[in-house]
Records
---
Amino acid sequence: MGVSSYHGYFAYNFAQTTVTSVPFIYGGLGATNFSSVDTTTGTVGGSVTTRTIPGESQFSTTWGGGVKFFPAPHIGIRVVGSFTPTYIKSDAAGWWCDPYWGCYLVGNAQYSNQLSLSGGVTLRF
């Protein structure tokens, strides 16, 4: 299954741009797209049955941080860790009764949690 994430984010650098190491954090909003999957479910009457599980897009957030190291004034190395939780669905978990609000059904939310650790080259102009 292919997973693609599209997020706009805001980042904050904790140091001046003239230092050799700059820690940073970021957070953003966007969407995660899960692609469709073709699967074989078995044989029915001697023939193989294939089905497609459709893909879908869901709202998601992304959170992360890392450090940029600049051994040269305009070239750096970036190390980043990120966390992207994506809401999938909620299952009924039971009833909650309150003397003020009354009784209502509560849900158990299920998420797809993506963790990543990456690195790269940074150019500073």
Note: Residues 3-35+49-123 form a domain with the Porin fold (CATH 2.40.160).
---
Amino acid sequence: MRDPESTISTPTEAENRARPCLAARILCHPNLARVGDFTPLFDERGTGTIAIHRHAPEFRSADARTVLPLQSQRVTRSPLHVTKFERGVVLRFDEASPPVVVNGTPLIGERSISNEALARGVVVLFGRYLVLWIGWLQLVEPAPLVQGLVGESSVMRHLRQQIHRVAPMEVPVLVRGETGVGKELVARALHGVGLRDKQEYVAVNVASIPPSTAASELFGHKRGAFTGATEDRKGYFLQAHKGTLFLDEIGEVSFDVQALLLRAVQNGVIQPVGGVLRQVDVRLIAATDADLEAAVARREFREPLLRRFSYEIHVPPVRARRDDIGLLFYHLLRERLEATGEGHLLVASGAEEEPWVPGSYVADMAQYDWPGNVRELSSVALSFIVENKQRARGRITDELRRLITPREPPREDAVPPESAKGNTDALSDEALKRALRDSGYSAEKAARRLGVSKSYFYKRIEKSKLLRGARALELDEIHAAVSTCGGDIAQAAARLEVSERALRLRLRGAT
């Protein structure tokens, strides 16, 4: 039930799509077909109380074909009350049983959740079978599906929209993101959605090409061109002629190989070793998890090569899309189980048999930060299957708990506040930038991560040549980033490497 003063205040559908809303998404449910369904609770201006229980509110499927309440006999009738106010929400559950656990801690009475915590998302476990994520979503139209890219979070919908927007344009694309996020899946999607989908797709890890053989590997060679060249060989560029060439790990390419790539990319002309000049026509996509701008500053990466990529796509880390954890995990489980003929373990059924995966494990996964991203999540899915092989009901072993137990990161760059005081050279600029990136560009969190005072951290940002605050950004640069990101301020902030809050204040002229 909704209080009269709650509800989403939505003057127009267009405004709905433009503004974020506080929403709840199903991460785990007795009927697995419901995983991923969501319900909008409040928009930015909405206040009041909403009760979540078996019969209300209604949750929408991603394709909007079904709109149903939680509707499970295994879900309590007792409501979880969500009260929104200016600085966050209050969660209240009045029953002692079944237990409700919020972010790993039992909810006794009520608990306040700040807007900062809601930006990350709150994980709520109801008893043994139901897990909800509560946080901010952008109410945008569902983007067309892309094979291999699973998720309905705001950032994943935006990613799919980007792919469909740029794929037919033939411009060189640089795919950026942390290790394990699925950059190669994005590259394949760009090829599959683009105009060359019927032509060759050639993927090569260019970091593994030694400078001594780079010309032959990239451009091919003629028979007899050098000792051991017993026959003609097509290089990667010729193999991809009329199709797509994907250069993975481009940030790790040697400086000499970068020069060879630059000439080929600039002119579309290559010369096989021992052969003549040839024109090639390839759609170029590259990927990296490296900070190429910092590499350019260190003279380790050629700036003209970086500039050749006229469009960038940033693939979000798993921790930025926690509301996708349920969909992702069950998708990965289903793929592996079906390959071994055990897909029946995850068959969604109205009979609502006890789920094979305990809800508590899904809740724990949604709170984990996934430093290895989707690749790490895939390994956990495999381990879950191995640990529960031939079991009708899965159980959480010590090994499975260990896999998603946060590990304390190395503190090699950490400096105690006392020793950092007045010493602006104690930390490298790279260490500062890494700490900011890992902390969502929150200076306060980054300072805590490094063990230094916030004032010291701000002083170092001001002195750094690699770091900029939102106040240092030109408005033209900000508007260009926002436009490139389709109006998504969070994506633009990540692209500009500043906090979302600081960027919003900058846009409002408050800083």
Note: The mean pLDDT is 83.
